Amino acid sequence: MKTTIDIPEELFIDAMKAIDVHTKRDVVMYSLNEVIRRKKMSDLADKLGTFNDFISQSELMKLRMTP
User: Is residue 36 in a domain?
Assistant: First the structure.
């Protein structure tokens, strides 16, 4: 799909350097894919929750020794 948008040239140049790509199209494709990836990761974390309780080394060893 073709579209016309007004984006500052310097912003594209900085983005191209930051993600090591050579075309404006690559910057846009990378950016769109990154937005989608982050949204999917956020949705997954919302569904599965997060892990905040870490087990200590001694607790881990006790669990391993328990038959």
Answer: yes
Q: What number is the average pLDDT over the span 40-51?
A: 85
Enter the tokens of residue 16: 């191209």
C-alpha of 39 from chain center: 8
Q: Is residue 57 part of a domain?
A: yes
Residue 54 covered by a domain? yes
* Residue 37: φ, ψ to 5°: -60, -45
Residue 30 · residue 18 · CB < 8 Å: no
The mean pLDDT of the chain is: 91
Please tell me whether the overall predicted TM-score, pTM, comes out greater than 0.90 for this model.
no
User: Environment class of residue 35 by beta-carbon count within 10 Å: exposed (0-12), middle (13-18) or buried (19+)?
Assistant: exposed
